Amino acid sequence: MTNRQLPLLIDEYNGEQTIPIPTAMPGWALEQGTVFEAAIPFAQRNDISLSGVNFLSFRMIDYGYLSDDEFNFMEQTSNNPPVILGGE
Fold first, then answer.
1. CA–CA separation, 9 vs 11, rounded Å?
2. Which of 27, 50, 54, 68 has the most CB atoms in a 10 Å sphere around its CB?
3. DSSP letter (8 states) at residue 87
4. Strongest mean pLDDT among 4-13, 51-60, 78-87
5. Nearest-angstrom CA–CA distance, 66 and 60
6. pTM for the model
7. pLDDT band of 87, cuts 50, 70, 90
8. What is the mean pLDDT of residues 32-52?
9. H/E element holding 74?
10. Ramachandran region of residue 4, left (φ > 0), alpha (ψ -120 to 50) or beta?
11. Distance (Å, whole) CA 58 – CA 37
12. DSSP secondary structure code for residue 35 in this structure
C-alpha cells in the first residue's frame, strides 16, 4: 500500500488491481491478508476500472479458524461468494 493506493486481489479480475483507498474502508480491511466483501452501487456493477467504484458496506470474511487443508478443501468444493458484490 503506497501513496494512498491499495492493491487488491478480486475474484472476477485477473491479477492484482490497484485502487485509491476508499473513504468508507474500515481500518481492519487495510491489514495484509484480510478477506472481505464490499457492496458497490448497482450502477457501477459493470465498470471495468475499479478506480472510480464507490465501495460500501465492508464485511470481514474470517477464514482464520481453518487449517490450510480445510481451507483448500472448502475452496474446491463450495461456491464462495465474490469479494465484491453488486449492491444497493
1. 7
2. 50
3. -
4. 51-60
5. 15
6. 0.58
7. very low
8. 84
9. helix 68-77
10. left
11. 6
12. -
